[in-house]
Amino acid sequence: MRCEVLLYPGFDELDALAPWEVLSRLAGARDDFDAALVSLDGAGAVRAAYGTLVEPQRALSERVDLLVVPGGGWNDRAAQGAWAEARRGDVPAAVRARHEDGALVASVCTGAMLLAAAGLLDGRPAVTHHGAIDDLRAAGARVVRARVVDDGDIVTAGGVTSGLDLALHLVERHFGAEAALSHERELEYERRGTVWRAPARLPVG
Question: Which domain holds residue 97?
């Protein structure tokens, strides 16, 4: 399973690096799971919202099983961050292309607004940082007040620290409760808040 966390100028450090720690730990423990920090072109360090320089490990892969999109810079309409990337269009286009190729796409905080800009949240349940809830609703999503919203091929999480809950939920979803609990113990973190999951769809006919 190939997992990538997408970096772009102005991303929020905790949005990306909290789930990254969980997913990279998982990659270190399993031969069937690969995790990487990526940017669109893989070239050069990316400066995050609070000035941290992060070196991507490679360019975003053409095919990926799980793509995690952090937020940052949306609520204050920063010159670099999710707001700027939504208007530029390259990140939303790349996210949409991977989703169309079968990737599970997950977002943390206002990363959901990049999913919305990609056209992935129209009429679908989702959540984001509380400061962007009205924007998410205006973008066509059906807002669900939960810590993590799992709608199958799209999973969104609320503000900043919820990236840990998102990643641990994904570990449990794909590798079981014991794997998730093991990571909680290592991190000395207990998941919090509600995980909303889409009701199972009954077969037709």
Answer: 2-197
In the chain, % helix, strand, coil (3-state, to 5) comes to: 35, 20, 45
Domain membership of residue 204 (yes or no) is no
Backbone angles phi, psi at 98, to 5 degrees: -70, -40
115 located within any domain: yes
* Least confident segment among 18-22, 46-50, 200-204: 200-204
Structure tokens at 155: 């999973």
Q: How many domains, in total, are found in the chain?
A: 1
Residue 29 CA, chain-centre distance (Å), reads 21
- Is residue 63 domain-resident? yes
Q: What stretches of the chain show up as alpha helix (H) in DSSP? A: 13-29, 82-88, 90-100, 111-117, 133-138, 162-175, 177-187
- What pTM, to 2 d.p., does this model score? 0.96
Asked if residue 202 is part of any domain, the answer here is no
Burial pattern 73-85, b for ≥16 Cβ within 10 A else e, equals bbbeeeebbbbbb
Residue 77 identity (one-letter amino acid):
R
